[in-house]
Specification:
This protein has about 375 residues and is of the alpha/beta class. It is globular. The chain has helices at about 10-20, 35-45, 55-65, 85-90, 115, 135-145, 195-205, 230-240, 240-260, 295-305, 320, 335-340, 355-365; strands at about 50-55, 75-80, 95-100, 120-125, 150-155, 160, 165, 175, 190-195, 265, 275, 280-285, 310, 340-345. Helices cover about 35% and strands about 15% of the residues. The protein has two domains: about 10-100 and about 110-240, Aspartate Aminotransferase, domain 2; about 240-365, Aspartate Aminotransferase, domain 1, CATH 3.90.1150.10. The strands form three sheets. It has a seven-stranded mixed beta sheet with strand order 1-9-8-5-4-2-3, with helices on both faces. Strands 10-12-14-13 form a four-stranded antiparallel beta sheet. A three-stranded antiparallel beta sheet has the order 7-6-11, with no helix packed on it.
Length: about 375
């Protein structure tokens, strides 16, 4: 089976993790690797502060809490995203409001945002889907006009840029995932980045059970969202090779686009002129002109030993959200459609051209 993703790891990660273990940097409460990883990753994004946590999901949860969002508040979220985006809102007792996708990048449609803002709207969480960034310059103008907090879900877009600035560094906070299939990985893990000193202080407080003085007296209800020292060591090794990883991911994407570019009925990923797409996954949609459905194509690819994944079930269709009091999403026809027609192909940075060629040849033989 050609897996949909494999992490890009080597001896450097082994050396750093082993060193962290030898130094006793096991918990997330002490040691040098954690602090160094936070500082260097935040600097890479272009932010003053990095707060490492246990996952991208807890990064979102923590950011929403730190922003003071809670019961009675509404938060606009991309309709097409992993459920984690909405869970960060739900678990803080606020209401997620899905924003439909646009046709070109499949990111949230900026032209719909203002129509969905109500007196209860407190924030917006744009998702940089599959590695192509949202136009954050345009989004931030809307957010400032309506006094909205902006929390970027950059779980899939490490290193993506908008007019030269890296995703995750535009909003009040940016949330990253370091899950095994992300651009860089710590196995499990995540980080919140920010330029706001007060938000950074609040994030660090809540991350660590909200310990204050005296130590076991708690004024706030915090969380145990600490990243371990040896995870941070792996993250630091990964960060040191991120340019190589991004080069290889863009090579993989360029090869797919070259070999599939003339196949009618496949809508391939784009890179708009103001953006750098890091192609977290090589995502495409299967249109009627292809002559075979997305599901039939995936089934044949699986039989040939090629793993794929569908796009995300949109937030307006999620049963766990539909049960929420007040949840009444506007129609999301684009997100609904790409959920039925979208898939992503094996996208490991190490994928050789020959393997990509085999995948593309298999796809071409399926066209009706």
């Amino acid at each position: 089976m050609i897996p949909v993703f494999e992490p890009f790891t080597g001896e450097e990660e082994i050396a750093y993790v082993t060193d962290a273990l030898r130094k006793g940097e096991i918990s997330g409460s002490f040691g040098t690797y954690l602090k160094t990883f936070e500082e260097k990753f935040a600097a890479y994004i272009g932010c003053k502060h990095g707060v490492a946590v246990t996952s991208g999901t807890t990064a979102l949860h923590l950011a929403v809490d730190a922003a003071g969002i809670g019961a009675g508040d509404e938060v606009l979220v991309s309709a097409s995203t992993n459920i984690a985006t909405a869970l960060g809102v739900l678990h803080n007792n606020a209401l997620p409001v899905p924003v439909d996708s646009e046709e070109v990048t499949w990111n949230l449609d900026l032209s719909l945002i203002e129509s969905l803002i109500t007196p209860k709207t407190k924030a917006i969480i744009p998702v940089h889907l599959f590695g192509h960034p949202v136009d954050m310059d345009a989004l931030m103008k809307i957010a400032r006009k309506h006094h909205l907090i902006v929390i970027e879900d950059a779980a899939e877009s490490h290193g993506a840029t908008v007019r030269g600035r890296r995703s995750g560094g535009f909003g009040d906070m940016g949330c990253f995932s370091f899950y095994a299939n992300k651009v860089i990985t710590t196995g499990e893990g995540g980080m919140v980045v920010t330029n706001d000193d007060k938000l950074a202080e609040r994030l660090r407080l809540l991350r660590n059970l909200a310990f204050t003085q005296p130590r076991f007296r708690h004024e706030a209800a915090g969380y145990n969202f600490r990243m371990t020292g040896y995870q941070a060591a792996m993250g630091l090794a990964q960060l040191e090779k991120i340019d190589k990883i991004l080069f290889e991911k863009r090579r993989v994407a360029a090869t797919y686009s070259e070999l599939l570019g003339d196949v009618a009925g496949l809508k391939l990923p784009v890179e708009l002129d103001w953006a750098k797409n890091v192609y977290w996954m090589y995502a495409l949609t299967v249109e009627p002109e292809f002559g075979v459905t997305r599901d039939a194509l995936m089934k044949t690819l699986a039989e040939k030993g090629i793993e794929t994944r569908t796009f995300f079930c949109p937030m307006n269709q999620q049963q766990c959200l539909q049960k929420l009091p007040g949840f009444s999403p506007a129609p999301c026809p684009v997100a609904d459609r790409i959920w039925q027609t979208g898939l992503y192909l094996p996208s490991a940075p190490s994928l050789p051209r020959e393997t990509i060629g085999h995948i593309c040849d298999t796809i071409k033989t399926m066209r009706g």
